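step=encode ok
step=design start
structure_in=
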């Protein structure tokens, strides 16, 4: 389903503020060219290159496959059974189940869903099910900051000079207003002038609500002006 099928609304997601997505899931991670991380709930710190990739990821830039973890393995079955259809591996999102099926029906921009190997504790036997990395890949400029409640200045990006804002940092249901440009293009995107919020077409937001993922994505309705 492409962006051409969008109706007249949109949604904003505070999924990056939902820390339960990556909290003690019983997973260990392997980065390309590295050994497996230890089987522990507190993973070791990552290097500056990975940090840079995570920063680009949370701005909506598409990443190369090698910038994501190579694989994951379940070392604590009880903990991993708590994982929703969206969970975090080393700061990057992985999807499965109904969520993966739903996202596959929409235009996700330059990114999309990338098959991701998840193993059992032996690091060799595939874990049951299909898993996908969610690679973002669309940045729009449709936010009407002067019409948004609770928009506060956050930083100015050195590379572009763009003023970036926090939205709804203190009041989760403050009104968010977008221009009609939001209705053009992919169903999943970031706004260049907004810090770590994900935006969704009306159709995609409704689809996530239909499969019970609204609370996980922390959706707020946006108005098109």
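sequence_out=
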């Amino acid at each position: 389903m492409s962006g051409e099928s969008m109706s007249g609304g949109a949604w904003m997601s505070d999924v990056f503020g939902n820390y339960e997505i990556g909290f003690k899931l019983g997973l260990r991670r392997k980065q390309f060219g590295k050994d497996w991380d230890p089987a522990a709930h507190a993973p070791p710190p990552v290097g500056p290159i990975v940090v840079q990739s995570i920063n680009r990821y949370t701005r909506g830039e598409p990443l190369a496959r090698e910038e994501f973890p190579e694989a994951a393995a379940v070392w604590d079955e009880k903990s991993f059974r708590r994982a929703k259809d969206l969970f975090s591996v080393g700061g990057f999102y992985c999807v499965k189940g109904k969520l993966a099926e739903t996202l596959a029906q929409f235009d996700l921009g330059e990114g999309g869903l990338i098959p991701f190997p998840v193993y059992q504790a032996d690091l060799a036997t595939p874990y049951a099910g299909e898993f996908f990395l969610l690679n973002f890949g669309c940045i729009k400029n449709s936010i009407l900051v002067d019409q948004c409640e609770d928009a506060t200045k956050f930083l100015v990006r050195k590379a572009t000079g763009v003023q970036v804002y926090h939205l709804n940092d203190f009041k989760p249901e403050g009104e968010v207003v977008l221009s009609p440009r939001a209705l053009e293009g992919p169903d999943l995107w970031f706004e260049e002038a907004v810090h770590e919020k994900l935006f969704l077409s009306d159709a995609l937001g409704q689809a996530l609500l239909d499969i019970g993922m609204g609370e996980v994505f922390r959706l707020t309705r946006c108005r098109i002006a």
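step=design ok
step=annotate ok -> Confidence is low (pLDDT under 50) at residues 1-6.
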